[in-house]
Write a structure and sequence with these properties.
The structure is a homotetramer of 119-residue chains.
Chain A (H helix, E strand, L loop, with lengths): L3 H15 L8 H19 L4 H5 L5 H25 L3 H15 L2 H4 L11
Helix pairs in contact in A: 1-4, 2-4
């Protein structure tokens, strides 16, 4: 049985293969494409206050753009991880194991100063 | 039954709540954090040729850094999507449905000129 | 007589030539390096409120980091423009000429909604 | 006498003031806008080989887009530095002073491995 993430990676692999686009999908190129899409996501949020950004999904047009930009980012991240043979879920949990050791809940409560959250 | 991606989103939500860090996790801030992590990923690949980047996982140290950077990107993307209430898998498949209509396999075969792959 | 920006571009060219690093300074690689440095700039500001970000230079340590990150961004931008043969000052003024035509001061006063400032 | 860079910063300040846009031009927002523009620059170069990227200015249309994207990046960088009170030229030279000490020309000749150029 495959997971939803593996199914997506498979579909992206087939999509690239059907168009003979694997030649463009080097890690270097895919990382640039990922960064380009994240840039579009930033552009959606750059002039909003943090409070406005928290309400962005209430506006159907802005919500549609956010969904579209997040999808583009997800597509390139999943494709890049697949090309590199990295299991994103496993790698993310390893990061969180580390984060739980490094950022003791009591010490870091409410503070973005002492340590950047999740880093 | 929850998926692996939902489990990760749940764990991130709990991690933030336990540290009272939800206040920092606005879409604006999370998008910046996501972009910062993608910047670290680019830094790993910037001086490599595309061919060298395709072999980057053969060097255990570089492979470890790539896995770590991809994990950071995944963590912030999943957290951002959770805060916004966006289903990443569904949104990504909607993009691919559109991509399959727009980029007919025969017309776009082998060409990154006519259209940017996956966009 | 050369300008301060041309002097900086000359020094960067000499710096790269003395180390035989021109081979790495393709537009593709330099654009990635530029993006990586912008990512570090974002990381400095990601958890600050906009108001806190406006006071960031009052903290000597944070001010030093901001100056350092801005310098890195400037270095890669000037080097990239030099490699491409683009006059940044001229290109920026052309953008502003266009911006003044597109964003009539009376129509766009106080609004980041109607149009993204400076775009 | 003012420099070309100061003239550009002045014009940007006037442009923002005439539209009452200073309220949007916090360091946080401007850093996001800068990153968004760098994302557009990456998108221009993402599918090109490094060699193709070195010839990008030979194609008049691509050259125009590169000039336009570089201008956008320069505009936000100069505006951000102005808002923060940072002298970009001075900060960049300080970086190069440091780079010349750190990266001895003989030791680092031809090598992007031992140290990332210009960092």
């Amino acid at each position: 049985m495959t997971t939803a993430l593996e199914d997506l990676a498979d579909r992206l692999r087939d999509f690239a293969a059907a168009r003979d686009w694997e030649q463009f999908h080097t890690p270097k190129n895919l990382a640039m494409a990922l960064a380009g899409e994240v840039g579009e996501l930033l552009a959606e949020l750059q002039w909003l206050t943090p409070e406005e950004s928290a309400r962005v999904m209430r506006d159907p047009e802005a919500a549609g753009r956010m969904r579209s930009e997040l999808a583009d980012v997800a597509v390139y991240l999943v494709r890049l991880a697949d090309v590199l043979g990295v299991d994103l879920i496993e790698a993310a949990h390893a990061k969180l194991d580390e984060g739980e050791r490094r950022y003791d809940a009591d010490t870091y409560r409410g503070s973005a100063r002492k340590a950047p959250p999740l880093q």
